[in-house]
Specification:
four-stranded antiparallel β-sheet; 4 strands
Length: 177
């Protein structure tokens, strides 16, 4: 009975601690104290357009930041602005005519009824070659004889009676001496 009470108390305590952690996480996320939020201003959206390695630890990166496209040189020593310009506008497809979607024809109720009557009117029949039953074969063709291992095969094994006799005599000698 005491064990059940202790388990319940531990489970309840763990639930309270997890609930407090969840509430604190929500509050910190809403207040903006998290590391991911920029305080006092809107954070800039950064999109990496492409990256090309040009050496061991050097690469050229094309980045779009708030409507501006930047080409940056990145190496182990730092980041350098190579060039900048206006980011291209996203390509939009202009639809000039009506769009028709492919539509599957729905079968009519009369057609469905006709097919159903044809299927129910057909007499169930077996193929002519299935009239003779198939011969039965046993699944396991191996013989079911059991062989007992010889004393020589069991020598030194835990299944050997000699091993148990030797262990018992060793324990008797230890007690006596």
């Amino acid at each position: 009975m005491d064990t059940a009470v202790i388990v319940l108390r531990v489970a309840l305590s763990l639930g309270v601690v997890l609930a407090l952690m969840w509430v604190l996480h929500r509050r910190v996320a809403k207040s903006g104290l998290g590391a991911g939020k920029a305080k006092g201003r809107r954070s800039a959206s950064v999109e990496v357009v492409g990256r090309q390695g040009i050496g061991g630890k050097a690469s050229v990166v094309v980045v779009d930041v708030e409507g501006e496209r930047l080409v940056l040189g990145v190496s182990e020593h730092g980041v350098a602005l190579l060039t900048s310009g206006q980011a291209p506008a996203p390509e939009l497809t202009i639809v000039t005519g009506p769009v028709t979607l492919p539509v599957r024809p729905t079968p009519s109720a009369d057609r469905f009824r006709q097919e159903l009557e044809q299927q129910t009117a057909a007499a169930p029949s077996l193929p002519s070659d299935a009239a003779q039953p198939l011969p039965m074969r046993p699944r396991n063709r191996r013989s079911q004889r059991t062989t007992l291992p010889t004393a020589q095969q069991l020598q030194g094994s835990i299944l050997s009676a000699d091993t148990w006799r030797q262990a018992a005599s060793a324990l008797r000698n230890r007690r006596a001496g």
